[in-house]
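tool=predict chain=A
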Amino acid sequence: MKKLEKKGFSRSDVNLAGTRYLIGNGYFGYRGTLDEFTKADMVALNLNGIYDRYGDLWRESVNAFNPLYTFVRVKDGELNPNRIKPISHVSGIDIQEGLFYRETTFRLKEADVTIKSERFADQKNRELMYSQYSIKATHPLEIDLYTGIDLDVYNLSGNHLDVKEVLDEVDFFFVKSVTRELGLPVIVGETTTRNFKQPGKVLIQNQKALRYYSIHMEADKEYILQKFTGVSHTREDSFEYLDMLVTKAQKLGYLRKKQENQEYWEEKWSLAHVDITGEEDVELAVNYSLYQLISSRPYSDQVSIPARGLSGQIYKGAVFWDTEIFMLPFFLNTDPESARHIIMYRILGLSGAQKKAVQYNYQGAFYAWESQEDGLDACSDYNVTDALTGEPIRTYFREKKIHINGAIVYALKQYLDRTGDDSVLFSGGLEMVMECARFYQSYLTYDRETKQYHVLSVIGPDDYHELVDDNAYTNYMVLFVFDMVFYLLDQARKVHPRKVSGLIKEKGWSEVIRQIRWAKERLYLPVTDEHHIIEQFNGYFSLEDVSLSELKNRVSHPNEYLGGKNGLATPTKIIKQADVVSLLALFPDKFTRVEKKANYAYYEPKTEHGSSLSKAMHALLACDIGRANYAYPHFLNSAFIDIKGEGKQFAGGIYIGGTHLAACGGTYLTLAYGFCGLKHFGHLLTCDTKLSSKIKEVKFKVLVKGKIANVKVTNMTATVTWEEPEA
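tool=predict ok
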């Protein structure tokens, strides 16, 4: 574990490198772009939990102004690998220290010039970010060094910040702005220290606030610029607060802040790091996935983790079920504070979910498919475009992806079991579960002939098949939520019986509970056929049974969307991602080994894996049925998806690149709960050796209610040992 880097510069790799070498702290993410890059290179300082809508375009997360903007001009032009081909270049991320770095050498007529830089996000004072930039030449050289704030930033859907004032305050720049929709203050600031004495001149024009230094460089002397920057938002005193933070950081100095950063990551990795003996680079890929999760962790109850992390505005910067199902387990094992934020974010979003339910004439709470602040659903009715015509395609994700409620309640159950923190139940958690169940109860359709309730017109995890009836995954999730109503009421009564009685009376839940029990006892659940297969939804077995390769041969455009009303996959059994397989992976004790093996074999060749969520579910189930070597390629795909840039970049004509945090979480899920067979029984842990033949040994730690367990799994043994608590 340490560094992930690439040598040589390619213009075509700029976008993927920006994702690959991201730094962040949950408050913001800063893409791994070069100091001299601009919006054309997708530079982005992306803010978590701050959203804006420009005109009629999609509402998305906000990219703040770029306070690290730095470049050098010489007689031949700007030293930028997009303009002057470098003779050598390397950029990368040191995940052990959360440090981006680059080194680029240009050959000019007068001299060889080398630019080095590094940057990191402050993990404690979350508004702050630092960089060090240096330049050295082999012979004397005249240069102009520019640094400051770039206000002309990259956005997917319009300009979101209205500049109110640009302040030049004796070596400090501050840009005051507000979001266009809600008028939220967003302040960006920067200052520098330098090892050279040339005076700087101010240049504020063309949406840039710059200082530039005309320097006669001496041969082989390194000229160093250290930047102390930050962004603050939503506070009434955002400017004063950021001014104080940046000033204090500058006084402490760059080396002190870098040391603090190293200490943070050393402590974090002491619990989160995974040791793997096996194929080369697998350990790095796994820990890189964990680095991305840590860098995107939520910093308060008001935010969670967006589907693409903080790598930009992809998927509108919204939170999906990815967080609860795929990312939460890592935080439950290593960072219960962040895990609690994930749970509380949904609890605090209850009012938004209730409003959405009313919008569609249902009771209870219908959680957002693409959740923004306060549970607002940013999902539109036209969520993808036709790659051939550019026309929007009608999709039903917003109104038919009802399994999101189940994912949220599933996550709450996991959190309660793992932490014992029942305070969340009395902080809105119990009401959230009840309202999720009320929604499901109001969504059901009763068949008087069969005397059963059915779940009609939904979309399961497989996006391609819309408006289907009795999707197996969804039906089982409905049952799970109904079960949780009674289980959690019983658990809560054991702690605060009077509070529970008072809540039931205050909310008028007695009749609701009776209705939920009635529906629960009569809910239709798809069962296996004579071949032990669960039909994904009613009518699935009658669809065209075409191979995936044959379907791909029918595609007219590489970015063509295969689902929806007229999608090529819609009339076939080809599915986008794990659906029934997800059901079996998440509820393994409900199904027999024979059923799990049969369904894995049936659905695996029919699954496109067009979502980065898919392969982890298949890997988990493969491990469960004793097919670890089947799981291993899926595991590698999840672990290397952002390193190799192999994820889907477009859905129809919509860009969906960026960091695949569900795959990062899925990598951890597969390793810990698949290959290592980790299971939780209250305060106890067990593990099992289900390693692929490619892996010789795995070691990692798990935090269990304040105690640390060391898990070690080899091809022959599996052990859990507990660390003695410090005196």
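The chain has two domains: 3-270, 321-675. The longest strand covers residues 223-233.
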